[in-house]
Amino acid sequence: MIRLYGMTGSGNCWKPAVAMKMLGIAFDWTEIDSVGGETRRAPFLALNPNGRVPLLQLADGRLLAESNAMLCYLAEGTPLLPPPGYERAKVLEWMFFEQYSHEPYVATVRFWIHYLGKREEWRDKIAEARVKGYAALAVMETALGKTAFLAGETFSIADIALYAYTHVADQGDFDLTPYPAIRSWLARCEAQPGFEAMR
Amino acid sequence: MIRLYGMTGSGNCWKPAVAMKMLGIAFDWTEIDSVGGETRRAPFLALNPNGRVPLLQLADGRLLAESNAMLCYLAEGTPLLPPPGYERAKVLEWMFFEQYSHEPYVATVRFWIHYLGKREEWRDKIAEARVKGYAALAVMETALGKTAFLAGETFSIADIALYAYTHVADQGDFDLTPYPAIRSWLARCEAQPGFEAMR
């Protein structure tokens, strides 16, 4: 059976889990204490030299890192990933946007505040990251003012990728009140068959 | 004809350009002064609300952002991207690794030093980013000690994605001397038919 190494509460780890639930793929979950440093110790580094969760282990033992690569692998041939062409490229565009322009700010500020309790101590670097997090949310708001989902009118793994940390942005003190299109989209994601939010 | 909006010297912009050259796809290049702020002004933001190059415009006018999404789109059905399955997933794993764990450090330090001239002024934040850049290079070194290319024995768009900023890492004062597997791999990339390095 597929095994997913992950940390509960991590949006990146939630992504492949929810995709497998939506697609009816059975898997086992192995909890890894990423905050406690378990991903940077030898036993885990032997599985993933990049020292991060999630990590997916296929039934035959082969390993795959990077949450969004997992989403592409799992969703191939399903309605969650359009066939090759422009629409698929837009799904990938949003997934690379997520890892470069959104996660490093929206998820990281949440991590600093919610997990590390550094709201006051790291006020300056939080303020700097917050500007970029809101910039990413503004890009999403513009897109979601035009289409029901990020890559068009159909729910896809791009929505899973961006939902992950957007729906817990408040735990990083991000205020979604001025982003009505994002808030409606969060609700549309939650209404998908089999969808389970992280909280 | 396809149009690529990009900045000369940007590894992210080089990626789709070299892929199109290798695949024999004709395109026009529109130079965008990203360092001078052109990507953050209204005319460009109307094309890409995320305010970044590269930006690909298809012959029919449709737009695509994110260099690695472009690579996937352009390489579909060619030897540069394996068919759906585990090998393709590994290509994507490296491309997400590139945007999350490599580019923000290796490319960013180069940008601060080579373009902005901040080697002394930003010494502390450069030192912090350098640790993470070397960590990414170490992950590559481990992988390239086992296989000829990043995702296996075949050159793919994962190699284009990682070559981009690795081959100019010295412009960010990264020393590749202790990374012999990376240095051999750079030479193997350069020996690919039609391959043109950024410099």
End-to-end distance of chain A = 26 Å
Strand elements of chain A, count: 4
Biggest sheet layout of chain A: 4 strands, mixed
SS content category of chain A: alpha+beta
Task: Name the CATH class of the largest domain in chain A.
Answer: Mainly Alpha
Largest interface between protein chains, with number of residues from each side: A-B, 35 and 35 residues
The percentage of residues in β strands of chain A lies in 5-15%
Gross morphology of chain A: globular
Could you describe the 3D structure shown?
The structure is a homodimer of 199-residue chains. By secondary structure, chain A is of the alpha+beta class. The first copy, chain A, folds into two domains: 2-75, 3-Layer(aba) Sandwich (Glutaredoxin); 86-190, Up-down Bundle (Glutathione S-transferase Yfyf (Class Pi), Chain A, domain 2). Helix content of chain A is 50%, strand content 8%. Chain A contains seven helices and four strands. Chain A has helices spanning 11-23, 42-45, 67-75, 86-115, 123-144, 157-166, 180-190, and strands at residues 2-6, 27-31, 55-57, 63-65. In chain A, strands 2-1-3-4 form a four-stranded mixed β-sheet, covered by helices on one side. In chain A, helix 1 runs antiparallel to helix 6. Chain A is globular. The two termini of chain A are 26 Å apart. The A-B interface holds A 49-50, 58, 62, 64-70, 72-73, 76-77, 84-86, 88-90, 92-93, 95-97, 99-101, 103-104, 138-139, 142-143 and B 49-50, 58, 62, 64-70, 72-73, 76-77, 84-86, 88-90, 92-93, 95-97, 99-101, 103-104, 138-139, 142-143.
